[in-house]
Design a protein that fits this description.
It comes from Advenella kashmirensis W13003. By secondary structure, this protein is of the alpha+beta class. The protein has 3 helices and 4 strands. The chain has 2 domains: 30 residues; 76 residues, Nuclear Transport Factor 2, Chain: A (Roll). The chain is elongated.
C-alpha cells in the first residue's frame, strides 16, 4: 500500500512539473505584457516605429525598455511589464541618419 501511495505521489509531481515551469516562465501572471505589446504601446505613445524591446527594471518594477525611432530622433520608453503603463520616456539628443547607431553604442 505504501508503494502505491508513493508511486502515486511521484506521478502527480512529475505531471505537475511542466505546469509549474510554465507559470514560472510567464511570471505566474496572466495580465503580463509581452515584448510585442510593449512595442505597440511605446509606438502609440511616441508616434514612431519601435525596433527593440528588452526586459529591464525601472525603479524596482519589472519593465521593458523599448527603443522607438521617431522622425529624426530616438526615444527610449520604459513600459511596465504588468500593467502596460508608460513609466518613463527619454529622448536621445543625437540627430541625423546614424543617430540609431550612436544610441545603440551608448546603451550596450
Amino acid at each position: 500500500m505504501k508503494k502505491f501511495i508513493t508511486a502515486s505521489m511521484i506521478g502527480l509531481l512529475v505531471a505537475a512539473a511542466p505546469v509549474t515551469q510554465a507559470l514560472a516562465y510567464q511570471g505566474g501572471h496572466r495580465s503580463d505584457v509581452s515584448p510585442a505589446q510593449a512595442m505597440r504601446i511605446a509606438e502609440r505613445a511616441v508616434g514612431g516605429k519601435a525596433y527593440k524591446a528588452e526586459p529591464d527594471h525601472y525603479k524596482g518594477r519589472r519593465a521593458y525598455s523599448v527603443d522607438v525611432r521617431q522622425a529624426r530622433s530616438l526615444v527610449q520608453v520604459d513600459v511596465d511589464a504588468r500593467s502596460g503603463k508608460i513609466l518613463h520616456m527619454e529622448r536621445e539628443k543625437s540627430h541625423g541618419p546614424y543617430a540609431h547607431r550612436q544610441f545603440d553604442r551608448q546603451h550596450r
